[in-house]
C-alpha cells in the first residue's frame, strides 16, 4: 500500500478526501495554493513567473549542503528559528547529494539565512549555504517538451472527454458495486497492517513478546449513504478545453503536472444536488461576466475558486478572487452584483455567501473571508447534537458516516465519569462534544480560531459548556498543559490530525503522561500516520518516557464511498509491564 490507497492524496485532483489542510514537508503547516505553484507567461520563458507581484516561494531560495546523515525537517526548522531565521519552506534537493532547498518570504530573510548558515556547525557538521536558482515553471517545461516533439499546437491533449476524466479521478470506483468497494478497502487495510507490524517489531524488539494476536482488525464499517454524501468541495474556476467555456469544477491535474483544464461536476455521484446547483448558478453568473477566470499560468483574471458547503438545511458559498487587476470601486461593484444576483435566489436558496481575496506578495496576515449576506455558517446535526460550521472550519466530509465513526470510538474508548477526554485537533468539536456525555470532561485543542469559536458555541448550544473546554493553539504547544489541568484520574486522548499526522512533541507528551493508557488515533492517511504509530511504540528512553503504546484494534470506517479512501480508527493501549502485558483485547 506504500504511497497509495489508504487515503493518500487523490491522484491528480485538487480535492482532499478528508480535509483541506494540505501538508508538505512537515505536519500541520498549511500551504496556500497560490504560493505553491511557480507560474509563467505564454512566451515560454520558464522564469517569467518570478517577475510578477504575487508572492512566490521560489523567488528567495538557498541551497543548504553538508547536512548531517540523519535529521528531521522539524529539527532543521527549529535550529533555524533559534538562529532567528524565518524559513518559509524546506524541500529535499533532487540530485543524489544530501542537500535541501530552503525558501524565504523576502530577500532580506534569504540573505540573512545564507550568511548565518554558511559555516554554522550543526550536529558535528559545518553547513554550506549558497543562493539557489528558482525552479522552472512546470507548464512551460511541459509545453517546451511538447514543442520539442514537433507538436505545432502544444495544447493539452486529452484521450477522453474532460468530464469523464474528472469523474474517473474524483470517484474512481463509481462503477464498482459497493460491497466490492468495501472488500477492496478491507484488503488495503490487511496489506497495510502487515507492513506496520514489521515496522513496529523492527523499532521495538520487545513487542515480539506481546500475546498473539497483537491486535484485532475489524471489517470496514460502511457509510450509511454511498452517493451525494460530500458536504464540502473546493471547486476551481477555469476553462473547459472542450467547449472553451468558463467552468466551475475540478482541475484534471495539478498545475505542477502541467494542466489547467477544468471539467464539470454535474455527473459526480458523490456530490449533493444542492452543491451542484450552487456551483452551476455561480457558473452561469461568471459566464455572463466580462471578468476572466484566474489563470494560474499568467496570474491574470479574477475568478479563482468556489468553496461550496452543504448541510441538511444550508448552502454556503465562499468565492475566492484575485483582486490584483480590480480597483477598489470595481470590487465594491462586484460585491453589490453578487448580493443582487444571489441573496434572494430561490433555487437553490443560498444561506451564506462569503468573498475572500487571494494573498499578495509581502502580505503578513491571512485574508479573512467577508460575509456578503446570510447567517455566516452552516448548521448540521450529528449524533443528535447541533453544530455550527463556519466557512473555513473543518467538518467531517460525510456527516452520516461521521456518526458511524463516533459510535465506533465510543464503543472502544472506555469512557466514564472519571475520564478526561483530550480532543487533539478538534476542529469544530465534533468528536469531543458527541462523546462529552459519556465522560467527565473534555478539553479540545485546535489551530484554526474560527473552528475553536464554533466549538465553543456548539458546546453552549448543546448544554455542554461546563464540561467541554476548547483552546486555540498548536497541539504541540498546548497538549502538555492540558494533561496537567485535569483533576480526573484517567485521560483518554483522541488524536485526529491532518493527514501528515501530529508532531513528535505531541506524542512525547502522551507518552510521559501516566494518566493516559489509551490513545484513539483517527487517520485519513494511515500510511502517513505510520511514523506516529512507530514513535508511540518506541522503547522507553529519555526522549520517549514511560511504557510504549501499541495498536490493539483497527476499525476502518468508509467516509468516502466511490473512492479508495477511508478513515482508520486505531485504538492504542499502553503496555502495562516489562513482560509486555497489555489491557486484554476486548
Ligand atoms: C482531520 S481534522 C479533524 C477535526 C475534528 N477532530 C473533527 O472530527 O471534526 C484536523 C484538524 O486539525 C487542525 N490542525 C491542524 N494542525 C494543527 C495543530 N498543529 N494543532 C492543532 N490543530 C491542528 C485542523 O485545522 C483541522 O481542524
Main β-sheet description: 8 strands, mixed
Number of helices: 13
CATH topology of the domain at 179-224 and 394-574: Rossmann fold
Helix amount: 25-40%
Ligands (ions, cofactors included): S-adenosylmethionine
- Show unreliable segments: 1-42, 149-154
Give Rg in angstroms: 25 Å
Say which CATH homologous superfamily of the domain at 179-224 and 394-574 is assigned: Vaccinia Virus protein VP39
Cross-sheet strand order for the largest sheet: 7-22-23-21-20-17-18-19
GO molecular function: RNA binding; RNA methyltransferase activity
Binding site for S-adenosyl-L-methionine: 396, 446, 496
Region (Disordered): 1-47
Family: Belongs to the class I-like SAM-binding methyltransferase superfamily. RNA M5U methyltransferase family.
Amino acid at each position: 500500500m506504500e504511497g497509495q490507497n489508504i487515503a493518500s492524496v487523490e491522484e491528480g485532483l485538487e480535492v482532499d478526501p478528508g480535509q483541506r489542510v494540505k501538508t508538505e514537508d512537515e505536519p500541520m503547516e498549511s500551504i496556500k495554493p497560490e504560493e505553491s505553484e511557480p507560474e509563467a507567461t505564454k512566451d515560454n520563458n520558464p522564469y517569467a513567473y518570478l517577475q510578477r507581484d504575487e508572492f512566490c516561494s521560489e523567488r528567495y531560495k538557498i541551497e543548504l549542503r553538508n547536512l548531517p546523515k540523519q535529521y528531521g525537517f522539524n529539527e532543521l526548522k527549529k535550529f533555524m528559528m533559534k538562529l532567528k531565521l524565518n524559513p518559509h519552506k524546506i524541500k529535499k534537493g533532487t540530485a543524489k547529494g544530501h542537500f535541501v532547498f530552503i525558501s524565504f518570504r523576502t530577500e532580506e530573510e534569504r540573505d540573512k539565512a545564507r550568511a548565518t548558515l554558511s559555516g554554522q556547525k550543526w550536529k558535528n557538521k559545518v553547513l554550506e549555504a549558497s543562493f539557489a536558482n528558482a525552479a522552472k515553471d512546470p507548464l512551460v517545461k511541459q509545453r517546451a517538451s511538447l514543442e520539442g516533439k514537433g507538436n505545432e499546437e502544444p495544447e493539452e491533449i486529452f484521450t477522453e472527454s474532460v468530464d469523464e476524466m474528472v469523474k474517473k479521478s474524483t470517484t474512481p470506483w463509481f462503477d464498482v458495486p459497493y460491497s466490492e468497494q468495501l472488500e477492496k478497502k478491507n484488503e488495503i487495510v490487511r496489506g497495510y497492517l502487515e507492513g506496520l507490524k514489521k515496522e513496529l517489531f523492527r523499532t521495538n524488539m520487545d513487542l515480539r513478546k506481546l500475546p498473539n494476536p497483537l491486535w484485532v482488525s475489524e471489517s470496514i464499517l460502511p457509510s450509511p449513504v454511498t452517493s451525494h454524501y460530500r458536504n464540502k468541495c473546493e471547486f476551481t474556476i477555469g476553462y473547459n478545453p472542450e467547449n472553451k467555456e468558463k467552468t466551475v469544477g475540478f482541475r484534471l491535474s495539478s498545475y505542477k503536472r502541467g494542466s489547467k483544464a477544468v471539467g464539470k461536476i454535474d455527473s459526480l455521484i458523490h456530490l449533493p444536488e444542492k452543491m451542484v446547483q450552487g456551483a452551476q448558478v455561480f457558473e452561469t453568473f461568471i459566464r455572463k461576466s466580462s471578468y476572466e477566470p484566474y489563470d494560474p499560468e499568467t496570474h491574470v483574471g479574477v475568478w479563482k475558486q468556489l468553496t461550496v458547503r452543504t448541510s441538511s438545511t444550508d448552502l454556503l458559498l465562499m468565492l475566492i478572487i484575485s483582486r490584483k487587476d480590480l480597483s477598489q470601486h470595481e470590487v465594491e461593484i462586484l460585491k453589490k452584483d453578487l448580493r443582487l444576483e444571489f441573496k434572494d435566489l430561490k433555487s437553490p436558496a443560498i444561506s451564506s455567501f462569503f468573498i475572500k481575496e487571494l494573498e499578495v506578495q509581502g502580505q503578513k496576515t491571512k485574508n479573512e473571508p467577508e460575509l456578503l449576506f446570510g447567517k455566516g455558517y452552516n448548521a448540521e446535526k450529528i449524533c443528535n447534537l447541533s453544530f455550527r460550521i463556519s466557512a473555513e472550519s473543518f467538518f467531517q466530509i460525510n456527516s452520516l458516516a461521521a456518526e458511524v465513526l463516533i459510535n465506533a470510538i465510543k464503543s472502544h474508548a472506555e469512557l466514564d465519569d472519571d475520564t478526561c477526554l483530550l480532543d487533539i485537533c478538534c476542529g469544530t468539536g465534533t468528536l469531543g462534544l458527541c462523546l462529552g456525555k459519556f465522560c467527565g470532561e473534555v478539553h479540545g485543542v485546535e489551530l484554526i480560531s474560527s473552528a475553536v469559536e464554533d466549538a465553543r458555541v456548539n458546546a453552549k448550544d448543546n448544554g455542554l459548556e461546563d464540561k467541554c473546554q476548547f483552546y486555540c493553539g498548536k497541539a504541540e504547544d498546548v497538549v502538555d498543559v492540558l494533561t496537567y489541568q485535569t483533576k480526573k484520574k484517567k485521560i483518554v486522548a483522541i488524536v485526529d490530525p491532518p493527514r501528515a499526522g501530529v508532531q513528535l512533541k505531541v506524542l512525547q507528551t502522551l507518552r510521559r503522561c501516566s494518566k493516559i493508557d489509551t490513545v484513539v488515533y483517527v487517520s485519513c492517511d494511515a500510511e502517513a500516520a505510520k511514523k506516529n504509530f512507530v514513535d508511540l511504540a518506541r522503547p522507553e528512553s529519555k526522549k520517549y518516557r514511560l511504557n510504549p503504546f501499541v495498536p490493539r484494534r483497527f476499525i476502518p470506517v468508509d467516509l468516502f464511498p466511490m473512492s479508495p479512501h477511508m478513515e482508520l480508527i486505531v485504538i492504542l493501549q499502553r503496555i502495562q509491564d516489562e513482560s509486555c502485558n497489555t489491557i486484554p483485547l476486548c
